[in-house]
Amino acid sequence: MRYWWVNQNQTYDHEVVGGFLWSPKTRRDGGRNQFYENMREVRPRDVVFSFCDTHIKAVGVARGTAQTAVKPAFGAAGASWSDEGWLVPVEFGEVERPVRPKDHIERLRPLLPEKYSPLQEDGNGLQSVYLAAVPEPLALALIDLMGNSYRAVWSEFASVENEEADDQHLQATTERTDIGPVEKRQLVRARRGQGAFRKNLQIYEHSCRLTMVSDTSHLRASHIKPWRDSDDTEKLDGCNGLLPSPHVDHLFDRGYISFSDEGDVLVSSSLPRTILDAWGLPSVRNVGPFNERQRQYLEHHRSQVFRNQ
Amino acid sequence: MRYWWVNQNQTYDHEVVGGFLWSPKTRRDGGRNQFYENMREVRPRDVVFSFCDTHIKAVGVARGTAQTAVKPAFGAAGASWSDEGWLVPVEFGEVERPVRPKDHIERLRPLLPEKYSPLQEDGNGLQSVYLAAVPEPLALALIDLMGNSYRAVWSEFASVENEEADDQHLQATTERTDIGPVEKRQLVRARRGQGAFRKNLQIYEHSCRLTMVSDTSHLRASHIKPWRDSDDTEKLDGCNGLLPSPHVDHLFDRGYISFSDEGDVLVSSSLPRTILDAWGLPSVRNVGPFNERQRQYLEHHRSQVFRNQ
User: Fold this and answer.
1) Chain A residue with minimal CA distance to B280?
2) Nearest-CA distance from A145 to chain B in Å?
3) Nearest residue on chain B to A251, judged by CA atoms?
């Protein structure tokens, strides 16, 4: 994974909201420009720091590689650029408290690269830069300065990535030829919490353990070990599930809460207590013990999904 | 839309959980059987009453038409049937309080068809029947007897259908050639509540109007007029959205709650009050007024999504 810095002053709104980077392929005179060439070096999952108005205002994660694309409707901002360029899809999230690198230049200066640096030695930006590589030590220092703002954006990316991984896994499942149509249908329906999985699950679970709602039309049939990570047997195993209310499902699915084997509620330090209060989630400390097989799946949830930092 | 009756005594568990009907194509002697021929008459969205142990225990909705399929692993139950047959995918839901037609035979008898009736005149079942057509007056009488049990199952189907309609609409959007890749990406991202739609939405809405949570990583960016029903402009319109908490989103998205133009909370009579209590949703009566453009979308929600029965 690599880190990149993009100067987006005039195109910030277009690119951050639109979810992409765009640059011409060459200078106006047809000459080579390293900051445009870098577009072709970006790989999916690379991290992009978006610099605008002297602040890092957004962080992005690349969702693909460069493709040829006509210039988006930038208006006056892009008048001098050629019509054809590189487009890289990037998912951006705006940080809550933008960081101004110049305010921390003493710390950052020793980490700036000698060539193609995104910043001047005095901490001012460089008009000539579009996309610049960020050495890892510099990237880690910037992330440290962004603190919780960075983590908040990142956790949103993680949810999107999980949904996309689900979609891909679903597609792959529908294309399998090693199982029959009935088995295939069961695995697919398990993803939506239906069919055999739901039936098997309701042998063990009868209500939302936190809110005590038992009307299943208001509960999710949700995997403890995520569907995409489960093998065929685990996908349909009634012990690999809970029946949470939608907001409890959100917290459990994204790792803000988990449970001990004995049923103690574990709350991640990344979840503000105000959320639990606002949602009227009672200060339940224990939801009752889990059986042996449920515990095996919970072990996976605690180690792989729970945000235990 | 047609109504069907299926006798599933020995294969009930397999078929209801598995989500399908299966019958041989012919009798053992190769002869024609109307109850097997009926399999080829089933159309998507047809309704299926599942009869087992003298009760209607489940209701299903057909998801496709008959396809040739090998006999599922019914065990001893299916030993006498040929290996090849018809399979119809059907989404089943078990009703909370099964209805015993024999208990209501005085009411039902005049409605039984003369030929290929699913029931005898005395209300007993018929071993020879597999799939029988149900005349509409008989179907409506059965639905009336099932009452809320039937509606509960049906509302689950509606959610699944909406999700599938979303998936199909998404697929169609990615295949459009009348718009560029950037516009296409915006429409697709709007479905997940991301990109331009989210940004536009956050101009007008800043928190969950019912729980007052404002940390957007715990809120959904949710369309008022459903994404699949919105045109390109409406999909990205910031006034066509709210920022509900996940459980509020569930209630709003499925039409259990809505809002008046002035912000009065409308609660569907099909939502048990116990759910609101269990979820600690305060007895908020008003969430503040909506602007003119929001009101246009809310009008659609109240008339098309809200369960105002």
Assistant:
1) A280
2) 21
3) B218
What does the angle CA A226 – CA A229 – CA A233 come to, to the nearest 5 degrees? 90
Task: Write the burial class of residue B115 (CB in 10 Å: 0-12 exposed, 13-18 middle, 19+ buried).
Answer: exposed
B249 shares contact with chain A (CB less than 8 Å): yes
Q: Which residues of B touch A280 (CB under 8 A)?
A: 211, 279-282
B192: left (phi over 0), alpha (psi -120 to 50) or beta: alpha
Residues in chain B within 8 Å Cβ distance of A215: 272, 274-275
Interface confidence (ipTM) of the complex: 0.80
Chain B CA closest to residue A278:
B211
pLDDT in tens, A179-214: 877 788 889 889 988 888 998 999 999 999 999 999
CA distances from A196 to A97, A241, A297, B139, B162 (A): 47, 12, 18, 27, 21
Distance CA A254, CA B191 (A): 19
**Reduced to 3 states, what is the DSSP secondary structure of residue B256?**
coil
With both helix axes pointing from N to C terminus, report the angle between B148-174 and B136-146 in degrees, rounded to the nearest 10: 110
Please give the full DSSP string across A172-228, using - where no structure is assigned: HHHT--SS-HHHHHHHHHHHTT-HHHHHHHHHH--S-TTT----GGGS--EESS-GG
Beta-carbon separation of B156 and A180 below 8 A: no
C-alpha B38, offset from chain centre = 23
For the entire predicted model, the pTM comes to 0.80
Give the angle subtended at the CA of A23 by the CAs of A20 and A24, to the nearest 5°: 145
